[in-house]
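Student: I would love a firmer grasp of how sequence relates to backbone shape in proteins. I am handing you a single protein, as its sequence and its fold in token form. I am told such tokens are a discrete way to write the fold. I hope you can help me see how the letters and the tokens relate. Take your time, and here it is.
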Amino acid sequence: MHSSLEEFRFEVALSFAGDGKRDLIRSVAELLRLEFGEGKVFFDEWFEAELAGHDAANVLQKIYLTSTRLVVSGICKRY
């Protein structure tokens, strides 16, 4: 658990299921990157090398649970 004074690796992480809304989520991520700066917004495409390999689920879990100030989930009617 982070205190309010601790630094997070990411200010915002975007989480979404499926590729149907990928373009929309990418647009949101780009706007957030303009606001928070390079490297402070997690969008999976921008961190593919870090997510490559058999432990991608663990890497994502760490990013969403402990490395990010705010996680934004994109959901659709299917979910």
